[in-house]
Design brief:
The protein folds into four domains: 8-196, Heat Shock Protein 90, CATH 3.30.565.10; 215-330, Ribosomal Protein S5, domain 2, CATH 3.30.230; 384-410, no CATH class; 415-622, MutL, C-terminal domain, dimerisation subdomain (formyl-coa transferase, domain 3). Helix 6 packs antiparallel against helix 7 and helix 16 (458-475) packs across helix 21 (581-593). With 622 residues, it is of the alpha+beta class. It is built from 22 helices and 25 strands. The strands form six sheets. Strands 1, 2, 3, 4, 5, 6, 7, 8 and 9 form a nine-stranded mixed sheet that branches. A five-stranded mixed sheet has the order 10-11-16-13-14. The protein has a four-stranded antiparallel sheet with strand order 19-20-21-25.
């Protein structure tokens, strides 16, 4: 077949395959155009999950009548200067509108602030109609109908209406977080409406917008982030370790105001929370990175969701360090949702939340909190069953000696401790975890503050304290290493060997001694003693891959931290050990002084707090 020039329509359809994946992609492009036009109000209407109709209306600057034809032509844009490295707008490629018009029926109606009237242009499967007069207010309305009618094969890959509507909602929310001063509305065919009123472009206004999107619980369970390093500024909020989600969908990241889904940022968030979350839980985050546009490439993919940093190690280090520092500075905090879960457990028909815990055998995070369930109240098995309901449901007096024996629980395991305790001082009651009042079931410390009841899992709490002490000892000095009888030679690509050699001093501090061994190889002479017998070849290759991706050696550090966590688990106070009053209070004070002690090494909460007001509600006092 001879070489020939593709038609303009086919070129646009090929481009649409990269830019327009689903209705949510159309909404993203059109909303970004509205924001680039300076809109203060953006309204989105969809039908059929966006496949039948997408309408985006804004009150931005509008498009002059004489420029409408250019607006739907490929590679025509008003947002890019002569420097591709100086991108300060959301859109810049000039592909979105012609790509949409090549696979759908597109119409654009617009009026500028100084215009006497509006004008309209349409594209039907790639065929552009003439510009004509129209009636409209200031701003632009873009209407997309019958998406992918010109490429019906794409329709087979679309999901159901509900799934497509959900994806569109997520796109609008993700963009709205970055523009709190703009009012957003999203209306679907089922008359469901998402309304995000404008707040302000201040820290308080941004947090208010985040609460609109992520729920009112987030601000009460979030920690502010504000850090800078070498021209890169990081701001935003992250959740406390006891406030998590089962997936990473509520991790929002922005680079110079652009919503992105970047693997480096996601990996940095995982690394920052690695010590305090279980592997099946994810932090809730909203992070804004600001840096010189010339040091980040947003033109990696036509969808503009991926970015590349000139110095990825700097960005990763900033995120990990800032989050860990913020978690440490925030001290010990319990999620405000914990009390609500406990309250739900006391309601009629409630059952403990059952969740198959992580592979390490510990209960999952949810199992530590109670949530209402579908199981009913079984009076026969309840400790509070009516006295007249025996095992065989035979009528019983309820006051016979044998019946009263059921209430004889014997001496409390910690009665001696409770009796020997002095009344707590006002200073102790004012502490975060208060004063220890009792130990129940030989594992749970019951403490009292001025306005709450605190229940502490002594094993989980001490496990975290031991782990943090081990980590501090581990990283405050060089890690002990063991000399290999014979050096292990690891063959690598030349560039990987060079990267490892450049980081050899840092690796030596962690107990891994290596050096170049000719072209394309390194010789490993020492390994960390804590690792014992390890697969040196795999370890070195993993490190080389990580350095290539992130310019860090976190893999080795994380392995050592995991060993420290195992040692802490086996070396902490075990369940079943009776503690004296002084020991319980000492444990509470250590928890208050130790960063991250709100969760154990496996991500389970170490304590739950129930406010006095909640307790009074349980007894009908409020």
């Amino acid at each position: 077949m001879p070489i020939r020039q593709l038609s303009e329509t086919m070129i646009n359809q090929i481009a649409a395959g990269e830019v327009i994946e689903r209705p949510a992609s159309v909404v993203k492009e059109l909303v970004e155009n509205a924001l680039d036009a300076g809109a203060s109000r953006v309204e989105v209407v969809t039908a059929g999950g966006g496949l039948n109709l997408i309408r985006v209306t804004d009150d931005g600057s509008g498009i002059p009548e004489q420029e409408l034809a250019l607006a739907v032509a490929r590679h025509c844009t008003s947002k890019l200067s002569h420097d591709i490295h100086d991108i300060r707008s959301l859109g810049f490629r000039g592909e979105a509108l012609p790509s949409i018009g090549s696979v759908a029926r597109l119409s654009i109606r617009s009026r500028t602030a100084g215009g006497d009237s509006a004008a309209e242009i349409g594209i039907d499967g790639g065929r552009v109609s003439a510009v004509k007069p129209a009636a409209a207010n200031r701003g632009t309305t873009v209407e997309v109908r019958d998406l992918f009618f010109a490429t019906p094969a794409r329709l087979k890959f679309m999901k159901g209406e509900r799934a497509e509507s959900s994806a569109t909602s997520d796109v609008v929310k993700r963009i709205a977080i970055a523009f709190p001063a703009v009012r957003f509305t999203l209306t679907g065919a089922d008359r469901s409406t998402l309304e995000l009123p404008a707040t302000s472009d201040t820290p308080e206004g941004r947090l208010a917008r985040v609460a609109q999107v992520m729920g009112k619980d987030f601000p009460d369970n979030a920690i502010a982030i504000d850090a800078a390093r070498e021209g890169v500024h990081l701001a935003g909020h992250v959740s406390i370790p006891s406030y998590t989600r089962a997936n990473a969908l509520q991790q929002y990241a922005y680079v110079n105001g652009r919503p992105v889904r970047d693997k480096l940022i996601a990996g940095a968030i995982r690394g920052a929370f690695a010590d305090v979350l279980p592997r099946d839980r994810h932090a809730v985050t909203v992070l804004f990175l600001s840096l010189d546009p010339s040091t980040v490439d947003v033109n990696v993919h036509p969808a503009k969701a991926d970015v590349r940093f000139r110095d990825p190690g700097l960005v990763r280090g900033l995120i990990v360090g800032a989050i860990r520092e913020a978690l440490a500075a925030a001290g010990i905090r319990a999620a405000t949702t914990g009390a609500a879960g406990m309250m739900a457990a006391f309601r009629p028909g409630a059952t403990p939340y059952a969740h198959p815990g992580p592979a390490n055998g510990h209960r999952s995070y949810e199992a530590a909190y109670y949530a209402s369930g579908s199981g009913g109240f079984d009076p026969l098995r309840s400790a509070q069953r009516p006295l007249e309901m025996g095992e065989a449901r035979a009528p019983r007096n309820g006051f016979a000696e044998s019946d009263q024996a059921a209430f004889d629980t014997g001496p409390l395991a910690s009665a001696d401790v409770r009796a020997g305790m002095a009344e707590p001082t006002e200073a102790l009651l004012g502490m975060v975890l208060g004063a220890a009042r009792a130990q129940v079931h030989e594992n749970y410390i019951v403490a009292q503050t001025r306005d709450s009841l605190v229940i502490v899992d002594q094993h989980a709490a001490h496990e975290r304290l031991v782990y943090e002490a081990l980590k501090n000892a581990l990283h405050s000095r060089a890690v002990p290493s063991q000399m290999l009888l014979l050096p292990e030679i690891v063959d690598l690509p030349e560039e990987d060997a060079e990267r490892l050699a450049m980081h050899s001093e840092t690796l030596a501090r962690f107990g891994l001694g290596l050096e170049r061994f000719g072209p394309g190889a390194v010789a490993v002479r020492e390994t960390p003693s804590m690792l014992g017998e390890t697969n040196v070849q795999q370890l070195v290759r993993d490190l080389a891959d990580e350095i290539a991706d992130n310019d860090t050696v976190e893999t080795l550090k994380e392995r050592l931290d995991r060993i420290a966590a195992t040692m802490a688990c086996h070396g902490s106070v075990r369940s079943g050990r009776l503690l004296k009053a002084e020991e319980m209070n000492a444990l509470l004070r250590q928890m208050e002084a130790t960063p991250g002690s709100g969760t154990c090494n496996h991500g389970r909460p170490t304590y739950i707090e129930l406010k006095l007001a909640d307790i009074e509600r349980l007894f009908g006092r409020r």
